């Protein structure tokens, strides 16, 4: 969120209701949390899930829950569960629960293909070598815009590719299962034109 929510605008477009008020306070808290992450230098993208509402029941209050997911530099994320409630007795109250996590299904899949020859891991970053594309007319559809990469694998293979795709920072929780398996070589001089080169 680039700016805090505006209650008047929300009322104008969503109507003056308890849901609009709860949604405003949930978004305001999300904005504050996101800003704190940015100020701390730990923000690496974020997403805000749709707000879910509960009507007043026997307890006498309406509530809503929304979830803010803030990416972290280490490849995992902070998950903020924001619960806002309104009672005729206590007014608005906000509770935030914070958890740390990573996308388990995504990284389990990466682990399952860790020995695939097209899988590259350098400095805790995960990459995938795509199919080579010849010529320069289709560069925008290539990983890193068709930049040529020289990769030396720990097993001795040397690969040249113009279609390398980043798959993210490997989170600390799975780094022991996905150790580095290669290095990038800045100068192509150690490479010979062999069948192992891909371009």
What's the SSE blueprint?
Blueprint: H1 7-14, H2 18-39, E1 46-48, E2 52-54, E3 61-71, E4 77-87, E5 91-101, H3 104-112, E6 119-122, E7 125-129, E8 149-153, E9 158-161, E10 164-169, E11 182-184
Antiparallel strand pairs: 1-3, 2-3, 3-4, 4-5, 6-7, 7-10, 8-9, 8-11
Any descriptors?
5-stranded antiparallel β-sheet; single chain; elongated; 199 residues; alpha+beta; 20% helix
Topology as H/E string?
HHEEEEEHEEEEEE
Q: pLDDT under 50 segments (min length 5)?
A: 190-197
CATH architecture of the largest domain: Roll
**Principal-axis shape:** elongated
- If helices are DSSP runs of H or I spanning 4 or more residues, what is the number of helices? 3
Structural class: alpha+beta
Strand content: 25-35%
Q: Strand tally, please?
A: 11
Spatial extent as radius of gyration: 24 Å
Share of helix, binned: 10-25%
Major sheet: 5 strands, antiparallel
The end-to-end span amounts to 40 Å
CATH class wording of the largest domain: Alpha Beta
Total domains, how many?
2
State mean pLDDT (0 to 100 scale): 86
CATH topology of the largest domain: Nuclear Transport Factor 2, Chain: A
Explain the overall architecture.
With 199 residues, the protein is α+β, with helices and mostly antiparallel strands. The chain has 2 domains: 7-101, Nuclear Transport Factor 2, Chain: A (Roll); 105-184, no CATH class. 20% of the residues lie in helices and 33% in strands. It has 3 helices and 11 strands; from the N terminus they run H-H-E-E-E-E-E-H-E-E-E-E-E-E. Strands 1, 2, 3, 4 and 5 form a 5-stranded antiparallel beta sheet that branches. Strand 4 (77-87) and strand 5 (91-101) form a beta hairpin.
